Automatic annotation (TrEMBL):
<dbReference type="InterPro" id="IPR008136">
    <property type="entry name" value="CinA_C"/>
</dbReference>
<feature type="domain" description="MoaB/Mog">
    <location>
        <begin position="3"/>
        <end position="170"/>
    </location>
</feature>
<dbReference type="InterPro" id="IPR036653">
    <property type="entry name" value="CinA-like_C"/>
</dbReference>
<dbReference type="Pfam" id="PF02464">
    <property type="entry name" value="CinA"/>
</dbReference>
<protein>
    <recommendedName>
        <fullName>CinA-like protein</fullName>
    </recommendedName>
</protein>
<dbReference type="InterPro" id="IPR050101">
    <property type="entry name" value="CinA"/>
</dbReference>
<dbReference type="Pfam" id="PF18146">
    <property type="entry name" value="CinA_KH"/>
</dbReference>
<dbReference type="InterPro" id="IPR041424">
    <property type="entry name" value="CinA_KH"/>
</dbReference>
<dbReference type="InterPro" id="IPR036425">
    <property type="entry name" value="MoaB/Mog-like_dom_sf"/>
</dbReference>
<comment type="similarity">
    <text>Belongs to the CinA family.</text>
</comment>
<dbReference type="InterPro" id="IPR001453">
    <property type="entry name" value="MoaB/Mog_dom"/>
</dbReference>
<dbReference type="InterPro" id="IPR008135">
    <property type="entry name" value="Competence-induced_CinA"/>
</dbReference>
<dbReference type="Pfam" id="PF00994">
    <property type="entry name" value="MoCF_biosynth"/>
</dbReference>
């Protein structure tokens, strides 16, 4: 029903990341609209006209961003005039908005600024409260085409306040409800096999999507209809049927980062946390402190990369480092107990592994990671993992797994 077109050479060469489409897709979906296609196109007249011609044949709603600035490479308005067989006219209201917006910012209004008040005669002008480029709404055959600035703040404001409400009034879309279940430590193919019968029994109103990432999978259930309560009940029943199959591998039921889910859980425990990191290199502490309010429970941590600091700061025994190596159950458990003692925290996490790409051996290949969790008065537990050969992924998976596993063990009373 909806197609999004983003315009600009800067998007195609990677100089600017297209965040507009992702935001628009989320907001349109919340409002009940299905986005069928997203296209990025260069600042070339024929390219814009070609993609616009195809989009208006496929979709009822075509939303465009970009190419509306005051410089010569901003050709969207002129291209729209050619496409809709119209011409530019001067709009006094838009010019007044431009003068008001630029007052105090420039000494005088130049010709390029003045030209921004030129708009296609056939369009319905929606005034821009945050910039100089007007928004243009075209009713075209059975479709609507809306051209907006590429500046995210300007686009978001007008989409939220003017475009989406007007589209809802015109098309009256149905209701879409999403529920995301977060699962870890089950490969996608294995999970799909586990869920075959459950998936076959889903009501026709519910669509299932697998969204995999390293070490975890988001299962998204989407339901479309006219009655929100009915859809919510059907999704809740589906989730109830899922839980006995997946069990403890479910670590969340909201589409949030693991760090956010951990933060909410840990804050409610009213316990404190400390970290001792080696292979994760501080990324674990970054995840913890990336969530506002982490100072309520996070005492601090140490990145003890060298064996010397493991011994001096955390009390790891030299003989164990020599006999078992830094990447070992013995060492990582001493690291967790050491930082627990130093900080007087309630819980501690320690990591030690071979992040790669070098440093691996036959006994301990790249991706070998030990994680330990210690609790005051309850001792320490540890687990061995192998996360693969990619350094960045190993660091990320180590850190997220450390948080998820602690949360799950605490829920089950294992630590």
């Amino acid at each position: 029903m909806v197609e999004i077109i983003t315009i600009g050479d800067e998007l195609l060469i990677g100089q600017v990341t297209d965040t507009n489409s992702a935001w628009m897709g989320r907001e349109l979906n919340k409002a009940g609209f299905d986005v069928q296609r997203i296209t990025s196109v260069s600042d070339k007249k024929e390219e814009i006209k070609d993609v616009l011609e195809k989009a208006t044949q496929r979709a009822k709603i075509v939303l465009m961003t970009g190419g509306l600035g005051p410089t010569r490479d901003d050709i969207t308005k002129k291209t729209l005039c050619e496409f809709f067989d119209t011409h530019l006219v001067f709009n006094e209201e838009v010019f007044g908005d431009i003068q008001k917006f630029l007052k105090g910012r420039v000494k005088s209004i130049n010709e390029l600024n003045r030209e921004q008040a030129l708009v296609p005669k056939k369009c319905d002008v929606i005034r821009n409260p945050m910039g100089t480029a007007p928004i243009m709404w075209f009713d075209y055959n059975d479709s609507v085409v809306v051209s907006m600035p590429g500046v995210p703040s300007e686009m978001k404001r007008v989409m939220s306040e003017r475009i989406i409400p007007r589209l809802i009034q015109k098309y009256r879309p149905g209701i879409i409800i999403h529920k995301t279940i977060l699962i870890h430590n089950i490969p996608e193919a294995v999970l799909a096999e586990m869920l075959t019968d459950w998936e076959d029994d889903l009501p026709p109103e519910i669509k299932l999507a697998y969204l995999p990432a390293p070490g975890r999978i988001r299962l998204r259930l989407s339901a479309r209809g006219d009655d929100a309560k009915t859809l919510e009940t059907k999704i809740a029943n589906a989730v109830d049927g899922l839980k006995p199959i997946v069990g403890d591998n479910i670590y969340g039921d909201e589409d949030l980062p693991a760090s956010d889910i951990f933060a909410e859980f840990f804050r409610n425990t009213e316990k404190s946390l400390a970290l001792a990191e080696s292979c994760s290199g501080g990324y674990l502490a970054h995840l913890v402190t990336s969530v506002a309010g982490s100072s309520d429970y996070f005492k601090g941590g140490m990145v003890t990369y060298s064996n010397e600091l493991k011994q001096r700061l955390l009390g790891v025994r030299e003989r164990d480092l020599k006999e078992f190596g830094a990447v070992s159950k013995q060492v990582v458990e001493q690291m967790a107990l050491g930082v627990l003692d130093i900080t007087d925290a309630d819980y501690a996490i320690a990591t030690s592994g071979v992040a790669g790409p070098g440093g691996g051996t036959n006994e301990k290949p790249v991706g070998t990671v030990w994680i330990a969790w210690a609790a005051s008065g309850k001792g320490v537990v540890s687990k061995l993992f192998n996360f693969g050969k990619y350094r960045e992924r190993n660091i990320m998976r180590t850190s997220e797994t450390a948080l998820i596993e602690l949360m799950q063990m605490m829920k089950k009373g294992e630590i």
